[in-house]
Structure formats: C-alpha cells, structure tokens
Known about the structure:
It comes from Paraburkholderia denitrificans. By secondary structure, this protein is α+β, with helices and mostly antiparallel strands.
Amino acid sequence: MRTRAVLTDEDIVKMADAAIAHAHTNQWAVTIAVVDEGAHLLWLRRLDGAAPATAEMATSKARTAALGRRESKLYEDVIRQGRTAFLSAPLTAMLEGGVPIVVGGDVIGAIGVSGVKSDQDAAVARAGIAALGIA
C-alpha cells in the first residue's frame, strides 16, 4: 500500500501567511483560496480592497487546478490557441491563477488567487506553495 502526503492545518496557515505577505509586499488586493485534492475549500481570505467577485474566482481557480491536476493557465492557453471545445470542460475558472500543490508527484491540493493580473495572481499562489519547502 502506498501512502501520500496530505495538507495539514499547519501547512495551510504557513501557505496562507506566505501568500498574504507576498500580496501585501506588492500592495495587491487579492483573494486567496486553498482547496484539498478533491477541490474542497479549506481556507479563504479576501484582503482589504479586493473585489467581492474575487472570492468566487479564487476558489474556482483553485478547484480547477486541483481537479485538473495542473495550473489553470494551461486551460487558458489551450483555449487561446483555438481549442474552444475546452470551454465545455466541467471546470469553472480556466484562467491563470490556480496552482496545484504537488508532493511526490501527487496533487494534494491547490491555491487559487484572484484580484490582479493573472501572472501576479499565480505569483501569489506560488509564494504560498513555496513556504512548504517542496520542489
């Protein structure tokens, strides 16, 4: 039987603190969402100044990354390159900003961020994941 990593409360707090710090350093008003491997919401925070809609977008980006087992940007790129059939995929936020959390080749969750430019959203998510010290 194979074992796999799971997100702990401590992991979530560590990632959240790092993501918030990155957003604050850059003065970005964003919402940050963390989901588990099944795309269930574990943590959500809308920073001061972030638009209300960003709460849904961040959560949806995280869910897309967790369920799709890849960054949500991949879907955005595929659609942009003309494969519009992907718009019918059962994922709700195929925009950059959702990043899976991968440990030992397994996706154990994802972080989604919304509120600034897409690459900046992804940078906040990656800063959170980097706090876990996983490659």
